[in-house]
Specification:
The structure is a single chain. By secondary structure, the protein is an alpha/beta fold. It folds into 2 domains: about 160 residues, Alpha-Beta Complex (Quinone Oxidoreductase, Chain A, domain 1); about 130 residues, 3-Layer(aba) Sandwich (Rossmann fold). The strands form 4 sheets. Strands 3, 5, 6, 9, 10, 17 and 18 form a 7-stranded mixed beta sheet that branches. A 6-stranded parallel beta sheet has the order 13-12-11-14-15-16, sandwiched between helices. A 3-stranded antiparallel beta sheet has the order 2-1-4, with no helix packed on it. A hairpin with a 2-residue loop joins strand 1 and strand 2. Helix 3 packs across helix 4 and helix 3 packs across helix 9. The protein is globular, with a radius of gyration of 20 Å. About 45% of the residues are buried. Bound molecules: NADP nicotinamide-adenine-dinucleotide phosphate. The site of NADP nicotinamide-adenine-dinucleotide phosphate has 28 residues, from helix 3, helix 4 and helix 7.
C-alpha cells in the first residue's frame, strides 16, 4: 500500500509499505479521510516528539476492511478512530482523566496512523458511525472530541455570553458547539475577515478583529472565553474580557517554553477560573455521534482535499491564508 512515512525530522515521503493484516484485537481499516493538523507540522519539524519511522495522521476514519476475530463491528462498517491509546487501568484512566495516562501513545505519532491507504487499529479505538455519513467528516471527529472536552470544562448552562479567540478549525467547531449549548452571544475574535465571516455564517452572533484599536472596550463581560489560538496575545486578552466569575478555557497550544502575562489581582477580584483542556478524554464517542447527527456544519471548514502525494509540499509551507482544514484522502 502507499503511505506517507516520516523517516526523520523534515524527511517525509510516499513509501510502499506492507498492507497490514488483522491481528487479535486489531482490525484493518481502509482509510477514507485523514485530517492534516497543526500537530503534524510540529511533528514533521521536530517540534513535537514522535517515533520514527512512523506513518503520520491522527485525525482519521474509514471503512472496516478486515475485522479482527473479536471485533464487534463488521467489514464494510464506517468507523471513526480515537488515536489516543491508554492503559485503562491506571489511577487517571480509572478516574476518567485518560489524557493523563502515563502510557498514552497515539496512532499517527508513536504508531502508524492514517496517512496511508490502510491502517491497523486496536478495536478499542473504533467508534462506528452510520454508513450515510460523508466520509470526509470522519476527519473532524477527533478535533470535535477535543472541542467537546473544552465545552465540558466550561459547563455551560445555557444563555452564556461566549467569546472564541482564534478562528481556525478548533475555534470554528467550539463556536458551533457553543451555539448548540444555547449560548446567548458568540463572538468570534480572529484576524482574518474570511474566518470572521465564516463563523458568522455558521452561527456566531458577532465578530471582532483583535488588531482593531481599543478592542478590549468592544469585548467585555464574557461568561466564557475559549482560547483557541495558542498565542500570547489571546491568553492576555482572555483575562481582560472575561467577566467577574467568568471562565477561561484554554485549548490553544503555545510552544512549550512560552510564558504569558498573568494578573493575580484580577484573578482574585474577578474570581476567574482558568483551565486548560487537553485532548479527548472519553469524548470520542459523543463526537462521533454529534458529527453523525449532521448538527455540525463541516463542509464549509474543508479548504482542500489532498492526495498523499500532495502532503509533503503542503507540510513544507505555512498554511494558506484563510484556509481552515485540509483533508487527506489516501
Ligand atoms: P489554527 O488553524 O492555526 O487556528 C488558530 C487561529 O488563531 C489562527 O489561524 C489565527 O487566525 C488565530 N489567531 C492567531 N493569532 C491571533 C490573535 N492574536 N487573536 C485572535 N486570533 C488569532 O489552529 P487550530 O487547528 O484551529 O487549533 C487551534 C489551537 O488548538 C492550536 O494551538 C492547536 O495546537 C490547539 N489544539 C489543541 C487541542 C487540545 O486538545 N487542547 C487539540 C487540537 C488542537 P487569524 O489569522 O484569523 O487570526
Amino acid at each position: 500500500m502507499n503511505a506517507l512515512l516520516l523517516s526523520a525530522i523534515n524527511q517525509i515521503a510516499i513509501a510502499e509499505q506492507p498492507t497490514p493484516k488483522p491481528e487479535p484485537g486489531r482490525s484493518v481499516i481502509k482509510v477514507l479521510a485523514s485530517g492534516l493538523c497543526g500537530t503534524d507540522r510540529h511533528i514533521y519539524k521536530g517540534e513535537y516528539p514522535s517515533n520514527k519511522p512512523v506513518i503520520l495522521g491522527h485525525e482519521f476514519g474509514g471503512v472496516i476492511n478486515s475485522p479482527s476475530p473479536d471485533c464487534k463491528y463488521s467489514a464494510g462498517d464506517l468507523v471513526s478512530v480515537d488515536p489516543n491509546i491508554v492503559c485503562g487501568k491506571c489511577i487517571d484512566c480509572l478516574a476518567g482523566r485518560t489524557a493523563f495516562c502515563p502510557s498514552l501513545i497515539a496512532l499517527g505519532v508513536n504508531m502508524n496512523g492514517g496517512f496511508a491507504q490502510y491502517a491497523l487499529v486496536p478495536d478499542t479505538q473504533l467508534h462506528k458511525v452510520s454508513n450515510a455519513l460523508n466520509p470526509l467528516h470522519l476527519a473532524f471527529i477527533e478535533p470535535t472530541a477535543c472541542c467537546i472536552r473544552g465545552l465540558d470544562i466550561a459547563a455551560m448552562q445555557g444563555g452564556e455570553k461566549v467569546a472564541v479567540l482564534g478562528g481556525g478549525v478548533m475555534g470554528q467547531i467550539v463556536a458551533q458547539l457553543s451555539a448548540l449549548a444555547n449560548a446567548s452571544q458568540i463572538t468570534m475574535v480572529t484576524r482574518q475577515r474570511a474566518r470572521r465571516e465564516l463563523a458568522i455564517s455558521l452561527g456566531a452572533t458577532d465578530s471582532v478583529d483583535p488588531v482593531e484599536k481599543e478592542v478590549e472596550s468592544k469585548l467585555q463581560n464574557y461568561d466564557v472565553v475559549f482560547e483557541c489560538a495558542g498565542v500570547v496575545e489571546t491568553f492576555n486578552l482572555a483575562q481582560k474580557i472575561a467577566r467577574r466569575g467568568g471562565s477561561i478555557v484554554v485549548l490553544g497550544l503555545t510552544p512549550e517554553k512560552t510564558m504569558v502575562d498573568f494578573n493575580p489581582f484580577q484573578l482574585v477580584i474577578k474570581e476567574l477560573r482558568i483551565q486548560g483542556s487537553f485532548l479527548n478524554p472519553l469524548t470520542q464517542r459523543r463526537a462521533a455521534d454529534l458529527v453523525d447527527s449532521g448538527k455540525l456544519r463541516l463542509d464549509p471548514l474543508i479548504s482542500r482535499t489532498l492526495s498523499l502525494l500532495e502532503v509533503p509540499e503542503i507540510l513544507n509551507k505555512p498554511p494558506g491564508q484563510s484556509d481552515v482544514k485540509y483533508v487527506v484522502v489516501p
